[in-house]
Amino acid sequence: MTPALTQLSARNDPTASVPSEVGARRRGGRSRARVLLVDSDAGAQSALAAALVEAGFEALLVGGAQAALDALAPDGPLPRLVIADVELPDGDGFSLCGQIRADVRTAHLPVLLLARREEDFHRDLAGGVGADDYLTRPLDVEDVVSLARLKSGYATGAATFESHTARLALPRVTRALLAGVRSGRLVLAEGEGWFSFRHGLVVDAMFHGERGSLAFRRLLGFASGAYAVALGPELHKGSFTMDRAHLCEAVLPALERFEALRARGLPLASRLTVDFARLAEELPALPEDVGEVVRLFDGRRTVRAVLLECLYPEAVAYEASTRLFALGVLVPACFIEERERARGGSGVPGFFEPVPSVDPVPGVSRGDAD
């Protein structure tokens, strides 16, 4: 349970140099990574501070450029990250970022700039003063928190940021990367896959031998473990384009549906096979295209492998598999194997072999019996 937000210091002058600290310590006395949050809008500042504290940061709140520079004075500890609004009552975020870069003591600090409205020249200004990223409102505070998790602790200008899906899930970091203006590539450990992005668009992806939008969707749904985000130009044409709006409106809801199924559905590591007797009973009531799912369950593939191979969207194939399991059409492979052994069979049961209509007579061939 994170500490409750402290009240912002009462002040008539929003540029006052008295900062407000939020979430200064974790339970047990362990210090948190500090983020300097510079914004004169107390409501927006409080909402972002609350999200940062919930994520495990300490938020140091100031209302203007001079207050921010005072907070970065030589006699105090430096934050791990600076997040500044572009419009400040005593200056602007671009100039503040330039001053931070000009001081050798603070030049390494990552700086995220937030704009209340997008201007054509803002991106050039942000790049010119050395900002690490530039985001425009309305924005999701979780995107800012995700970028803070990814970039805090790294020096500005760092080309590669490492993380893990257990710390920062791929859908969240992807949404955050598309909220900014940077280009680069997210690469999974062990070369399992990657996707590239450019100025708010996903432009290419590869995962498990697939390339394109299907690979991107499956990477977000199935990949886990360590990954790295490498920032830099992505100049190749790519295989598709997807903006943040489509990601949020179509891809992420489908992933949430898939995750909800995983929480209560079939384990992805389980091996299932078909009970053909049960399939024959249920077949008249099943959709015609269910065969595209059924045929993949051979007792050797895992549910995960089936979902990756199936042509249907993962959530659709997973729902169909779960339904077939509930009907008894799909059963654990070990169940069928044990049943066949109990019947005196050996090896893998020959599901597709016809049953002889007449029991063979020992020593007599089929031709002789006829």
Number of domains: 3
What is the top-level CATH class of the largest domain? Alpha Beta
CATH architecture of the largest domain: 3-Layer(aba) Sandwich
Oligomer: single chain
Q: Level of helix content?
A: 25-40%
The computed structural class is: alpha+beta
- CATH level 4 superfamily of the largest domain: Response regulator
User: Based on DSSP secondary structure assignment, what is the total number of beta strands?
Assistant: 17
Radius of gyration based on Cα positions: 29 Å
Q: Main sheet, how many strands, which sense, barrel?
A: 7 strands, antiparallel
Segments where pLDDT lies below 50 for 5+ residues? 1-17, 25-29, 346-358
Please count the helical segments.
Answer: 14
Distance from first to last alpha carbon: 81 Å
Overall average residue pLDDT: 84
Structure, briefly:
With 370 residues, the chain is α+β, with helices and mostly antiparallel strands.
Helices, strands, pairings?
Elements: E1 20-22, E2 33-38, H1 42-54, E3 57-62, H2 65-71, E4 81-85, E5 87-88, E6 91-92, H3 93-102, E7 111-115, H4 122-128, E8 133-136, H5 141-151, E9 160-164, H6 170-179, E10 183-188, E11 193-198, E12 201-207, E13 210-211, H7 213-222, E14 226-231, E15 242-243, H8 244-264, E16 272-274, H9 276-282, H10 291-294, H11 303-309, H12 314-327, E17 330-332, H13 333-342, H14 366-369
Structural notes for this entry:
The chain is of the alpha+beta class. The protein folds into three domains: 1-156, Response regulator (Rossmann fold), CATH 3.40.50; 159-264, no CATH class; 265-342. The protein is 36% helix and 20% strand. It contains 14 helices and 17 strands. The strands form four sheets. Strands 9, 10, 11, 12, 13, 14 and 15 form a seven-stranded antiparallel beta sheet that branches. A six-stranded mixed beta sheet has the order 1-3-2-4-7-8, with helices on both faces. A hairpin with a 2-residue loop joins strand 5 (87-88) and strand 6 (91-92). Helix 6 packs antiparallel against helix 8 and helix 8 runs parallel beside helix 12. The protein starts with 19 loop residues before the first strand and ends with a helix. The model is unreliable at 1-17, 25-29 and 346-358 (pLDDT under 50).
